[in-house]
Amino acid sequence: MHLAFRLSWPAVAVSVLVAACGGGGGGSGFALPIATAPAPSPAPAPAPAPAPAPAPAHALKGTTTLRGAEVTAFCSSGPVASGRAGDDGRWSLSVEASAFPCVLRAVADDGSVAKAMPLAKQSAVPQTTAMYSIAFQPGHDAGINPLTDLVMSLAAGQPLAAWLDAHAGGLSQAVADLEAPITEAAERLKSLLHGAGYALDADPSVAFDADAASQLEGFFASLNESLQNAGMTQEQFAELLSGDVAPSALPYTRRWTNAEVAAMPQLNHAALGISNGALSLSTGSGLASAAGAFVGGGLGNKAVLQLPGFDGLKVRDFQGIEIEMQPDANYTPGQGLPYVSFDFVVDMQCGQPPLAADATIAQARARYRTVTYDTYYQYLQPGGEHYGSLVPGHYATAVITPQSRGWRVSAGTPIGSTDINGSETGQTPLDVAALPADACFADAAPADGGMFRNAGASPVCAVATALDASMPAACGAAYRGAYLFLGSSGNKNASTWQVRSLRYNQGVRTFSFE
Fold this sequence. Notes:
- The protein is of the alpha+beta class.
- The chain contains 10 helices and 21 strands.
- Strands 8, 9, 10, 12, 15, 20 and 21 form a 7-stranded mixed β-sheet that branches. Strands 11, 13, 14, 16, 17, 18 and 19 form a 7-stranded mixed β-sheet that branches. A 4-stranded antiparallel β-sheet has the order 3-2-5-6.
- A hairpin with a 2-residue loop joins strand 9 and strand 10 (278-283).
- Helix 2 (146-156) crosses helix 5 and helix 2 runs parallel beside helix 7 (234-241).
- The chain is elongated.
């Protein structure tokens, strides 16, 4: 019998695969010689498209007054970039052009201090830890310093840390919206700083340029000393600015030079001078000029140090002033020779238009009242509360608050229980509650009898006698509404007192002498 085997193509294929794979034990087996067509060559794969070239990164660089600080850019688009400033305050970040504008923040490590802020003295006040600025476009080296930080805070209307948190989800529009307010804020800040007493070597807007810091070192040093004396940080100052603030509320330290005080106008034979860090207020024993220097016609001598930065300060915000001083070397307590006292001019109609050009002395005296703290009764008169604390050869600090006894007020309508000139006993405080709610200290021409006369204002002012209350108010010269003085319109004694410092409201206003 003949058997025929018929294999289907799948079976053959399986056989071939098994044989080729060494199917069967020991690798033996067989395979059918089947001719196969060569496999077609695969089509060449298409070349991959070239990857898009990365957008060129731009170097965002600049300077900061916080040496060694970590600098971070929070841009309107793109990732946050950060880096470390060098010991010279220079920094550089890689930021794409499309990411601008960017808010910049410099955060100092513990112990870092502003490289352009030499301290007049060290204290335990915490140093600044963060400052802010802004870069609107690439290719512009940016500055991060105290002035940019203050402008930014003023423009944002709130602390910058809180502003960043509030706009974390929409930084692009928020940053763009800052451009116009920054311009306005720079102008307002300049006005506020000048009103407080600061001298700026340049406009605040230039602080955003990296190289501008060198033009502002004098301001940075002055600001740092002022913050130290007030026990305030840069962040606290910026937060103060972000609200509705008056210049008189800003911390400011005025360091006087001898040339500045020597040029200040005095009443008759009197002079100011600085030596060894102390101010000397001196009166002579000579007589006044023919027309006299006082509105009230007195022939005495009075040395006056006018103090800036109090104009517009509400009397209700007055907490106290500390005067570090020592009497004349020949002063004997109780003998009645000239002594140092302190004056404020109070505007009873604060915020109202100034007096008319044809106003009289009587009208000026009703609008502007002079309140005096007379040191005699409590510090120099035997039996006074602080008698014996002011003695020649030793500096002591007189602390004067509204509650201190010894206040008196210029003649006119009584101010509550405060003594009136001519009847004072040195036993009353300053009755702040009896003043109008908006009463403020003012730089003005009160035409007070014991103050400067402007003899050149009109021929009627240039007489030797006291000026009648119906005379022009212009006969009284304008002066700073806060001042320290030695002597009076009747003083003809030679005397010199020395003052080492004055601190108002715990250092918000500090006056020192080179």
